Amino acid sequence: MKQTTCWSEARTSKENVQKRYEWVVKWNNTDMNFSRNCIFIDEADFDINMKSNRAWAPRGQMAVTTTSTTKAPSHTITSALSSVGVVNLSIRVPKQSPKVRKVQGDKYDQMRGFYFIMDDAPNHKQIEDTLNERNRDYKYVFLPPYSPELNPIEQFWALVKRKVRREKLQDTETLQDRIVDAANEVPMEHLRNIIQHSKNQKSSFWQWNDCKDVPDSKKANRIIDRGLKYNLRVKRKFAVVDTDSDSSLELPHRVSLSSNIAELSNANEKEVTFIKEYTANIVGRMNWNKCLTEGQSKGLFKRYSTGSSLRANFDRKHNHK
């Protein structure tokens, strides 16, 4: 049994899958590169009652955790992420004037010409307006609907929330401090890996368009992916031994199967003839174990180890004929 993951039906609909493919085709023809010139923006909600959904308990007892309040206020945290790390992490303050937002946010001159990638949430339209106000060649890109796999920051928030839920807040600790500490604890290598994962998802949509009309193509792709992952694991386990020889390996000799097949068919005919003669000469009930023993003494039935297997094979051939 595996832990289930709930997906909306719209996420796997043909219409939305087609939109993802069209989005990948459109932006692959530009200089947009997830690892070089992209900023990923998204929000996540936190509250002090966030707990892990797994805990230890004695056998026969429920795993129960307590919370300070039944319903706690939620804090919306906005983050900007890139391949060089977390660009910004802040609480979204409502009713903030546009002038204040512009003064506070306009301080990353080295990101001129970057692509700002976000989902199509309604509040992200404000970010679009803010980027249009600045003369820094900022480019905003909205993801197709129901496409979290194309936004690496979704995985980043999953890591942060897992760290926030790990332990109960201390008396001298605030939720904001815990969120900042959790974000800082995410290694740079993990950030690069989740961005690379989203880049790989873009490649998978190319494969989907090429194979969407081929029967059983999804199953074939899964088998190929498992084979590639297995090869990577094998490469990590075994070091490549370099030799000084430049000569290639000789091809093995071709083995003719016709002679083996002829020998096997002749042996089958002899075994069938022996069984028929044995059954014709016996008195009483057929003893397959004894028949097997006498036949093996004459060089027959080398493929069998029990009388029941000999009987089953003979009955199958006899009934087939």
Automatic annotation (TrEMBL):
GO molecular function: nucleic acid binding
InterPro entries (alphabetical): RNaseH_sf, Tc1-like_DDE_dom
Name this protein carries in UniProt: Tc1-like transposase DDE domain-containing protein
Residue ranges of domain Tc1-like transposase DDE in the record: 39-176
Domain of life of the native organism: Eukaryota
Organism: Rhizopus delemar (strain RA 99-880 / ATCC MYA-4621 / FGSC 9543 / NRRL 43880) (Mucormycosis agent)
Pfam families found in the cross-reference section: DDE_3
